[in-house]
Amino acid sequence: MATTEKRRRHHSPPASTSTSTSTSTAGTPASSSPTQTSPADSSSSSPSLDLIPDIARRLTSLEDFFALRATCRAYRALLPPALRPLLASQSPLLLVALYPSFAEALFHPRLRRLHRFRLPWGHHLPPSRHTLFYARGYLVTATTAANNYPPRLLLLHLFTGEQLRLPKVPARFSRVILTADLLVVIFLPGRATVQHCRQGDLLWRVGTAHAPHVFDDLIFVGGTLYALVGLRLAVVDLSEGSLELSFLGGEVDEANRPTGDRFMLGECGGEVLLISVEREDGVVERVVYRVFRWASEERKWEMITNLGGRSLFLDLDGFAACVDQDYPGVRGDCVYAAGLRLGEWHEYSLVDGTCDVCYADYRGAPPLNNDSLIRPSVWIFPSMC
């Protein structure tokens, strides 16, 4: 497997220096005074702010973008509008860790190369900080105090540098959902409690479903919050008190029970999906992914193998995104799932059932084990921000 090339530093050409005319204390020009240049102007090698949007539109890689953004804070606000064409064409990436520094970088699965950047809270090392999720341009990171509880969620927009800090979380959680209007919903599968918060809220709002219902998974699709409760699909009315569930179907019996060991909700083209993961024992352990759509007329899950050319991406803890087949190296009707091992992912074809196990091979990759303080990789989607 090819190794990652060293990152090249891109230096911008020096900006042209401006000249000024020397004046006397009386305010009249000095007739024989030479042209003078301020020390700041003569030593500056950064482009002026007026040139940044035009330069950004000519960038061809995220590596160039991060190098340009790192040169000056004032550039960050000017870059995103001009970067939309570049970001829209970028393939999904993996957020990986560098060993032993625990710094994070973006790994391009097809090009086998790293895009380095610096997080503002990089001084928090695992296990006091974990990046949990990426959605709508934001990295969702959890930091904990010395006693490891309660955590605080930090949101960083990877491409604008915008930071959002949320209050300390009152109850345990492992899954995070982020909506278009930046409503953050967190929950712990197997529990009946859902916590939600917006920027500016002083406290998290907590809602609890009526017994005996517990949530196996949650997902927003088309502005509606859906819940998976014992393989039953329900619509959730998110309120501050108890959560109201409206089930879309009856109990699942053995005749129509989807096959799998672990289940999660997903979406594709505005349609709610159920995704199952099953590990088959053998000479070589094999992982099988199955996808089911909700058939509203029959009020049950139906297995499908055609996603209309789209592909599903799964983080270790749940659904990440659905992308179109518009990116080099991304196969249609395929499931891309982060594996249990560090830097591992699976490429599973729904068409023929083949599964390729791949590894992020790069300089500074941590050992492939499950005991590391570093969490498994997180999928990043530059085109969705």
UniProtKB/TrEMBL annotation:
Region (Disordered): 1-49
Pfam annotation, one family: Beta-prop_KIB1-4
Compositionally biased region (Basic residues): 1-12
Chain intervals with Low complexity compositional bias: 13-48
Annotated ranges, domain KIB1-4 beta-propeller: 108-338
InterPro entries: KIB1-4_b-propeller
Name the record gives this protein: KIB1-4 beta-propeller domain-containing protein
Organism this protein belongs to: Leersia perrieri
